[in-house]
Amino acid sequence: MKSGNAKPTDFTDEYCPAMLLLLPYTEYLRRMIEPRNVADIIFVFLLVYAVLKLLRGTRAAPMAAGIGFLVFLYWLSVKQDLATLEFVLSNGLLYIGIAIIVLFQSEIRQALITFGNRFSVPFTRHHGQFGEGVYDEIILAATTLASTKTGALIVIERNVGLKNVTDGGVQLDAELSYDLLVSIFNTASPLHDGAVVVRRHRIAAASCFLPLTLNPRLSRDLGTRHRAAIGVTEDTDAVAVVVSEETGLISFVQRGDIKRGLDATKLRNAIFEALTGEPKRDREQKHSEAESEAEEIASI
To answer: Quick check: pTM over 0.85?
Structure first.
């Protein structure tokens, strides 16, 4: 029997240990909903998402998976007290920062270029730096060279300068025109072996040599000219137009991706969309809508 002098059990005393256990979680949740911490989580999420988006579909993806597996092995060795494995991995992981820079140098460069282009719009020239007439000069020259199966490589500079490329070629600084492009890539011309770099509405240099891509997944049908076009677009934000001397096919390259077998219309749309950020048909639709609105205002 219970003593009559015993005090009734207090509810708070009974559940005090449980409340103490839940207190860190409630405090954690309270701090998590603070605006500063929410913004912190959002920024980390966006950063991780951007990194994964850049790695997807590139040769860096399997390398990143391999590095992640090594990190997992190191965690497992520490957790299970595997002294030998922990010793080997701990010494190897000291140099993982240098290994990441060496292995992912092209991806890191492309990521910095992408971030820089997004945050430097007010301070640099816009993507739509060419007039539509300049498009026509490049497209007409490409289709003419394709009809005669004359190889050509035209690189269009954008926000990232290609001075290191043009310095190794023949400086021209000439007005961009159909006749000049066809003359440069004529097989009898001493400047035909190499790339032409277009800066704004002028030909900056010809007979320029570009870095070749090291992507092992490319088709073996792609020759040196196509690999050079892919290489320069991987390292910079430039775009390139390639004409194959074997098949006469026209290709367009942007961010390391190549589109082959384009006709004049598709090539023009690809160039226009890459340099202005919107498809040509959308701009034409906006232009027609603006003209119709102007006509309605004029009629009123």
So the answer is: no
